[in-house]
Specification:
18% of the residues lie in helices and 18% in strands. By secondary structure, the chain is of the alpha+beta class. The strands form 2 sheets. It has a two-stranded antiparallel ribbon with strand order 1-2.
């Protein structure tokens, strides 16, 4: 049996198949929504610039930069 910790509340979850956990990797719908809310409030962000493959770079204000 495998185990993981819920990324939000750190509760230990045991499972044999991922489908055994309906809110994987979270323990509950509440923890899933708390995490989603953190993304929506911009508490979480991806800080690496988009770039070297020819994609548009975005500055700190969210505006496109040339180059």
């Amino acid at each position: 049996m495998q185990k993981i910790n819920c990324p939000n509340c750190r509760k230990i979850l045991f499972y044999q198949l991922i489908k055994d956990l309906p809110y994987f990797p979270f323990c509950s719908n509440r923890c899933k929504l708390v995490d989603f809310g953190a993304w929506m409030n911009e508490s979480y962000c991806i800080e690496e610039p988009i770039g070297s493959d020819g994609s548009t770079c975005v500055d700190e204000k969210g505006e496109e930069m040339d180059g």
